[in-house]
Amino acid sequence: MSRTDSNQEIEIKLRVPGVEAARSLIFGAGYDVSVPRTFEVNSILDTPDTSLRQRGMLLRLRKAGAKFTMTVKGQVSEGKHKSRPEYEVAVSDYEAAQSILFQLGYQSVFRYEKYRTEFTSTNQLGTITLDETPIGIFLELEGAADWIDRTANALGFSKSDYVVESYGTLYSNYCAKRGSVPSHMVF
């Protein structure tokens, strides 16, 4: 996680037409693969009365290859970038962590899958990820707001291309456009 404050996530997504085009843009901007393409399963958890969602918070349990993390995100600040407090810890046993959360009254409310490749550059203070999802291909730029703007511009995007919605919201919008009922965003 690259950010200006260790507990503040600042990011945007950019919709791209395809994986190869995106990789060419990223390599052309001087970035190298820092984490190879990895399959992720992300589970969003909440209480039965959706108390976290009502407070603008998110609890996520992620399985990315052999790496497991639990993340809590706070309310999003309004602006051209998505900015919110984020606290993340490594989890050694995914199933045990899930069982603990279930015992505490949380339940899985949304699951989404993606393939993610992470890119960094030795002279830049941000991270670009390439996300291959069931609803399309996205770049995610995470770092300081000025780095995001410079990097998006260097990749050929403008601020009007910024996407700040979550994958859950993007998936709901995707289903609404197709007249389908949202469930889980899985392959």
The figure for the number of domains is: 1
Which class in CATH terms?
Mainly Beta
Main sheet makeup: 8 strands, antiparallel, barrel
Q: Counting H and I runs of at least 4 residues, what is the number of helices?
A: 5
Helices and strands: which structural class? alpha+beta
Architecture in CATH? Beta Barrel
Topology-level CATH name? Hypothetical Protein Pfu-838710-001
Q: Which consecutive residue ranges, at least 5 long each, have pLDDT under 50?
A: 1-5
Q: How many individual β-strands? A: 9
On the 0 to 100 scale, the average pLDDT is: 95
Classify the beta-strand content into a percent band: 35-45%
Q: What would the principal axes of the Cα set say about the shape? A: globular
Distance between the termini: 26 Å
Helix content: 10-25%
Specify the CATH homologous superfamily. Hypothetical Protein Pfu-838710-001
Rg for CA atoms: 16 Å
Key words describing this protein structure:
187 residues; alpha+beta; Hypothetical Protein Pfu-838710-001; 8-stranded antiparallel β-barrel; 5 helices; 9 strands; globular; disordered N terminus
